[in-house]
Design goal:
Elements (H helix, E strand, L loop, with lengths): L2 E6 L4 H11 L7 E7 L4 E7 L2 H11 L6 E7 L14 E2 L5 E9 L2 H10 L9 H15 L4 H9 L4 E9 L5 E7 L4 E4 L4 E4 L11 E4 L4 E6 L3 E6 L5 E2 L4 E2 L4 H5 L6 H7 L1 H9 L3 E2 L4 E2 L2 H4 L2 H5 L3 E6 L1 H18 L3 E5 H4 L10 E7 L5 H12 L3 E6 L5 H5 L2 E4 L12 H21 L4 H22 L2 H11 L4 E6 L4 H15 L2 E6 L16 E5 L6 H13 L3 E7 L4 H5 L2 E5 L8 H18 L18
Parallel strand pairs: 18-19, 18-20, 20-21, 21-22, 23-24, 23-25, 25-26, 26-27
Antiparallel strand pairs: 1-4, 1-10, 2-3, 2-4, 5-6, 6-7, 7-8, 8-12, 9-10, 9-11, 11-15, 12-13, 13-14, 16-17
Helix pairs in contact: 3-4, 4-5, 8-15, 8-16, 11-15, 11-18, 15-16, 16-21, 17-21, 18-21
The protein binds 2-deoxy-2-amino glucitol-6-phosphate (AGP).
2-deoxy-2-amino glucitol-6-phosphate (AGP) binds next to α11.
Length: about 625
């Protein structure tokens, strides 16, 4: 996510803002910038790279004077990471300066209208469009900055946390939020704005947290006025007296980034389909896909290359693509694919899946596929990453930075993107009925709520974790769409608790692994309502007959498995094809709690790196 820091008061703004940006580095970013009002005009420095690069740029280019300023760390969503696309952004007149965290979905149509009115744009960002929309309204309606912002925000669709000021009225900052956090720190004759309290907690522990669809006008002499964006009505804000310490704030109050990211999944799944999935209209809009639909519909097959958790997402996609779009799919470990001299032709489409966009094996597999004529499509979480630049086209997940080494929200947002691609292709090919297409669209739209529901079992899952934290081995079993989820659950446990675990198709038990079953072997079985349900119940009975300890993921209200299993983890009723998005939640939480109880370094497990950029 982007980081926002602003200051207005009686001290030099530069050191406060710069240090505040450093406090927000944990959020992950690819560029940084600052704008200061120095008493006569605006000084701005911004750069691709780190806050340290911004510091060097500012030392070389600006006076660093002034007690009003805005700073920003950008996580690119529109426009690759470079100096021009970095924030802050000026309006055309140079009077307004804005910083923004979020996504303006309808920026293209607004940009077109502004161009018709003579506006020009330097960057590819939605943010520059927003600041010029505000400027256009301010001029046309002859209103103050706050009113112009309120009118403009009623015209945009998307998510935002913004802060801006007008050099002609340098005694105020205007902020607003919808879908991205924004805090206002209240000091003695000084105010702070930031994405969270870390940048100002050392100066004040009094903070207002704007709610969605609220804005605020912060005036040095008059204080903070909070208003509703929709109707400009005044709000009486609650002033929090913060007790949190710095580290707790960085993790959003969670003990680990991994847990924070597990809980972010409802939001980031929604962010990933926001503006792309219009369920009521029956529309899926994936910019990177539209121009290449024929490549997919005419393909002999789709080859998916990835590693680790991303490879598990690819396995889920295999089931979905073949079931809905009837296109043959092969899923390959990138590390094997790149060396086995695979048969690849121009009639193949390769999908490369990668959270980091920097995994060496996946990058090498992409290059090999391109050399042999395949069209390569990327599903990445980092804008401008090596893999996103190497692929012919692609769709970004909007999971935001994933700090925990164990991948969680990347997995579910990858599946979300792949599901949208499969649905779009199935609709174009006519391999599913329009009514089924519409049904799946509406079902996908319900997933964030179902994931929220699944997260409510956290306390129960922690109790189960306690019972099994000392086990030496685990087995994870699943069938159909949930076989890849069994593999993913086993990987989660292995990599953060260091307990050996294996995932298998449930039916594979009788081909060998059942020899492992005894009273010391916990077996996690995904046994939700599905076409395979009866067969999974038989597998559970086989395990029970050999005294295996059974932990079953079941659809809430299940009574059959509940009688057989030693422990159950309930998830809400979910359409089978989309069930991996929900059944993975209890497995993430189970591995998290076991690892915490074993006092493991959950966010940075031993021997692991977040991105494997070497072979
Ligand atoms: C998953 O929890 C691991 N961190 C690891 O398997 C990871 O999924 C794999 O290294 C691939 O990384 P990528 O998605 O960034 O390419």
């Amino acid at each position: 996510m982007c980081g926002i820091v602003g200051y207005i008061g009686n001290r030099e703004a530069y050191p406060i803002i710069l240090n505040g940006l450093k406090r927000l580095e944990y959020r992950g970013y690819d560029s940084a910038g600052i704008a200061l009002y120095d008493g006569t005009g605006i000084q701005m420095a911004k750069t691709k790279g780190k806050v340290s690069d911004l510091e060097s740029r500012a030392d070389a280019e600006i006076s660093k004077k002034g007690s009003l300023g805005l700073g920003h760390t950008r996580w690119a969503t529109h426009g690759v990471p470079n100096d021009i696309n970095s924030h802050p952004h000026y309006s055309n007149s140079g009077d307004l300066v804005i910083i923004h965290n979020g996504i303006i979905e309808n920026y293209a149509s607004i940009k077109k209208e502004l161009i018709n009115r003579g506006y020009t744009f330097k960057s590819d960002t939605d943010t520059e469009v927003l600041v010029n929309l505000i400027e256009e309204i301010k001029k046309k309606e002859d209103v103050k900055l706050g009113k112009a912002v309120q009118i403009a925000l009623n015209q945009v669709v998307g998510a935002y946390a913004i802060a801006l000021f007008d050099r002609k009225k340098p005694d105020e900052i205007v902020v607003a939020r919808l879908g991205s956090p924004l805090a206002i720190g209240i000091g003695e004759n000084e105010f702070f704005v930031a994405s969270d309290a870390t940048p100002f907690i050392e100066f004040t522990n009094n903070a207002i947290y704007l709610k969605d669809e609220e804005m605020a006008i912060i005036r040095l002499k008059k204080g903070v006025k909070v208003r509703k964006i929709k109707d400009d009505s005044l709000v009486d804000p609650y002033i929090h007296e913060l007790q949190l310490n710095l580290e707790q704030i960085e993790k959003g109050g969670y003990d680990h980034f991994m847990l924070k990211e597990i809980y972010e999944q409802p939001k980031v799944i929604k962010d990933t389909y926001r503006g792309r999935l219009l369920a009521n209209k029956g529309i899926i809009k994936l910019g990177g896909l539209e121009d290449h639909i024929n490549k997919f519909t005419n393909a002999d097959r789709i080859i998916i290359v990835a590693c680790g958790t991303s490879w598990h997402a690819g396995l889920v996609a295999e089931y979905i693509f073949e079931d809905w779009a009837r296109i043959p799919v092969e899923v390959e470990y990138a590390s094997e694919f790149r060396y086995r001299n695979p048969v690849i032709t121009e009639k193949d489409v390769v999908i490369a899946i990668s959270q980091s966009g920097e995994t060496a094996d996946t990058l090498a597999a992409i290059k090999l596929a391109k050399e042999r004529g395949a069209f390569v499509y990327g599903v990445c979480n980092v804008v401008g990453s090596s893999i996103s630049r190497e692929t012919d086209s692609g769709t970004y997940t909007h999971a935001g930075p994933e700090i925990g080494v164990a991948s969680t929200k990347a997995f579910t947002t990858q599946i979300t993107v792949l599901t949208m691609i499969a649905l779009r292709l199935a609709d174009v090919k006519g391999t599913i009925s329009h009514s089924d297409y519409m049904m799946h669209l509406r079902e996908l739209d319900t997933i964030p709520t179902l994931v929220e529901e699944a997260l409510k079992s956290d306390d129960k899952i922690r109790e189960i974790a306690y019972e099994f934290k000392d086990a030496a081995n685990f087995l994870y079993l699943g069938r159909g769409y949930n076989f890849p989820v069994a593999l993913e659950g086993a990987l989660k446990l292995k990599e953060i608790s260091y307990i050996h675990a294996e995932g298998y198709p449930a039916a594979e038990m009788k081909h060998g692994p059942i020899a492992l079953i005894d009273e010391h072997m916990p077996v996690v079985v995904i046994a939700v309502n599905s076409n395979h349900y009866e067969k999974v119940v038989s597998n559970i009975e086989e395990i029970k007959a050999r005294k295996g300890k059974i932990i079953a993921v079941v659809t809430e209200g299940d009574t059959t498995v509940k009688e057989l299993a030693d422990y159950i983890m309930e998830v809400p009723k979910t359409p089978e094809t989309l069930s991996p998005l929900v059944t993975t939640i209890p497995l993430q939480l189970l591995s998290y709690h076991i690892a915490v109880m074993l006092d493991r370094n959950v966010d940075q497990p031993r021997n692991l790196a977040k991105s494997v950029t070497v072979e």
